[in-house]
Amino acid sequence: MNELMTVMRRLRGPGGCPWDQEQTHESLRPYLLEEAAEAVDAVSHPERAELAGELGDVLLQVAFHSVIAEEQGTFTYADVERSIVEKMVRRHPHVFGEVQVSGSSEVLTNWQAIKAAERGGKPRTAADRVPAALGGLAREAAAQKLAGLRGERAELLQLVQAAPDSAQGVADVLAAAVAWARSLGVDPELALRERTARVLAALPDEAAPE
Q1: Helices of type H across the chain
Q2: For the whole prediction, is pTM greater than 0.90?
Q3: Of 9, 78, 92, 178, which alpha carbon lies 20 to 30 A from 145's?
Q4: Domains of the chain, earliest start first
């Protein structure tokens, strides 16, 4: 990581790359989302070297933001690393402390309790608990989980037939499809991403320029 940080400081410094020098936390947001999505896609790829490369791209974004913050005097990469190390130790008292657990369900219960304590017991709103940057299907699935909603295939088919030809109608059908997927234990975001990947793979390559 030290070598990556050195590279990023060189790119951002005098005589570095004009494009890298122009970037801000805000301008890098789409790249962070894109690189995270590509890493998710790589998990499904049989060649694990591809996953290593995509995780490197995600790590680049961490380094990029850290160098920008370092320049602004707001935080450093060391702060980023220290924060996550302390969080992981704090949230695993059954490993780093004396707490005893009977299984993963109890681990998750303790995790949520520790998170609440970190906020001083202040509850989060539903919107706070579902990141706005999630893909539409993933965000709907998370919202439905919070609301305790479930769906069935029959309900989806009925809604498809009755839905108006409008944006609201499409949204209602998509939400019902997400609910149906969740009832089957299927992640709708991943399922659609994998289907889209198959469609793209079947398309002909772009013609080479003459």
Answers
A1: 2-12, 18-22, 29-43, 48-72, 77-90, 93-96, 104-118, 126-129, 136-147, 153-162, 167-183, 188-202
A2: no
A3: 92
A4: 2-75 (1.10.287.1080), 126-210 (no CATH)
